[in-house]
Structures are given as structure tokens and as C-alpha cells.
Known about the structure:
It contains 13 helices and ten strands. It has 354 residues and is α/β, with parallel strands linked by helices. Strands 1-8-7-6-5-4-3-2 form an eight-stranded parallel β-sheet. Strands 9-10 form a two-stranded antiparallel sheet. Helix 7 runs parallel beside helix 8. The chain starts with a helix and ends with a strand.
Amino acid sequence: MTDRQQRIALLKQRAEKQILILDGAMGTMIQKHKLEEEDYRGERFANWKQDVKGNNDLLSLTRPDIIKDIHLQYIAAGADLNGTNTFSATTIAQADYGMESLAYEINFESAKLARQACDEWEAAHPGDVRFVNGAIGPTNRTASISPDVNNPGYRGVTFDQLCTAYKEAANGLLDGGADTLLVETIFDTLNAKAALFAISEVLEQRGEDVPVMISGTITDASGRTLSGQTTEAFYNSVRHAKPFSIGLNCALGAAQLRPYVVELSRVAECRVSVYPNAGLPNEFGEYDQTDNEMAALVREWAESGMINLLGGCCGTTPAHIRAIADAVKGCPPRKAPKLTPKMRLSGLEPFDAA
């Protein structure tokens, strides 16, 4: 299926009938290859002025074979929506490697690789269309919190700078063939608002209507994002964007995320997505939760009618995604609640008008 709007229409149809499956961690899969500095550099960046090992997004340019193969593994495992290798593909995040000028190209080529993988799968399995989820990460700067404890009013980035970076990323992803845009791993809601504003302008300029997905991060047992918002307050802050879905990912495993999934499912008027880590990291920073353990936890969410999209974040593999897909097969997707219309505001806490 070559037309994006046709694919989007099909995606929405599927979402009404089944729980959609997201893919798993990209970083976990890249780590299995034990790549060194020269692998990241390739021929093109052999003489780059600084180290680039760890810039996983760059691999879309220097080792596209690895990235495409990872996509194909997740597709074979059952992933409907396959995230691009672009978590840090903004000018702001790429500045760590002096590669700001490559941001658009990385987004474009990453989306192109994911598109090729989806198209190859469909060619081999006629009628089984898979979708490219254009991933837009949070950047490594925060618009709400000062990085200088001695100057609480200082900010390392402005709203306008974030918007400019997010616009470039969104255009690259869409030009490369993304079907949806995912603003993910949100720890600062102001960053997310900049991304959503940028996306709205990009779509208006392009004359397109593309599903936008939002996924926040509850950082610890406090049940709040890094910038201090509760789950409901976070939802109230971004519901104006009328997202295709809103959800949670990263930081916590499925067991720890459950109460916040319950809260989000109660208030969200759109679809709910969750892609947790494979449990909590051990003392070596590794994830030990097995595919079957994780699948058992998220199946209960599906059986309880709390979820529309499921996948995995840090530590998850194609085995985890396959187990999740098998566990929720046949479970109906969550039905959004009909809430009483009222003014819903938020600071760190939600405020709903009486």
C-alpha cells in the first residue's frame, strides 16, 4: 500500500477492532551487535572531529543493514507500528556529537528504512500492512527546569528553539514515509507542548492530517513526570492536541506502571498506549524480566479493558513483542469513556471545574 492516507485509514480501522502492537527497544537490539567506534563512523564519518560511538541514530546512515534488520525482526514478531531509529535525531540532541546538520537526513533515512521494512513484509505477506511510527524523542534539554542549581531561573533551551528542532525532525520523518508521529518519553510537558505545536504547524503547512501519538514518562514511585506532573495533569496539559493516542513508556516496568495506566484509562478520551521496560534494571543496569513474565502482566491490562496499544521499551526484544502480541490476541481494545464536558486545567495537579 503506497498511499499514506490509505494506510492511516486502515490503521484507524484496525484500532477499532483490535489492540495494536508497538515494537520494542531499538537500543537493546543495537547493543547485541557490540559495535565499536568505527562501526558508528563508517566510511563517511571516518575522520569526524569527535567520538560518535553511542549515537545510535547515526547508524541509520552508517549501518542501515542493522537498523532495517531490527525493524524486520519486530515486524515478524507482530508489531503493527514500528518506531523509527530517531530518538535523538534533533539538532539539539545531535549537538553532543557536532552533527546538528544531519538531523533532517537522519530522520528521513530512518523513516525510509522503516518504510522499506514494512513494504518488504507486505510484499511477502499480501494484505498484511504494517505502519511506520515516526519517533520524536524529548531532546536532552528541558524547558521547565534549570540545569544550574545556582540559577533556578536559567533554561538550557527556549520554546522557540525546541519548535524549530521538532519541525525539522517531523518534516524529515514525513518525507521519509512515516504514517504517524510519536512524541515519546516525555519527561517535561513544556518540551512536549513545543513538539505538538511544531507538528501542528508542519501538518498545516503540508496540508496533511497524520495521527499524532503522545507518550509520557513517570520517572519514579512518586507517580509524576520529571517536571512534576501527575498522570491526569499531564493528560489535561496535552489533550488539546486531540491525539490518536496518549500513553506511558520507559522508566518503569509493567508492574510499577499499572496504577498510572488505570488513572490514564479513566480520564483519556482517546486511545491509551503503554510500552513499559522489561521490569526494573538490575545492579548492572540490565533488564531481567522475561518475555512471558511481561506478557502475563500486560494481558491483565487488556482483560481489564484498559489498553489500546501495547509494546515494549528498554530491555525488550522481538521475543517480548511476540509474547505480548500472543497474550492479547482476541482481547478487545479499550473503549474510551464519555466524560462530562467541563473545563479541565492543570499545573502539577489536575484541576477540573465543578
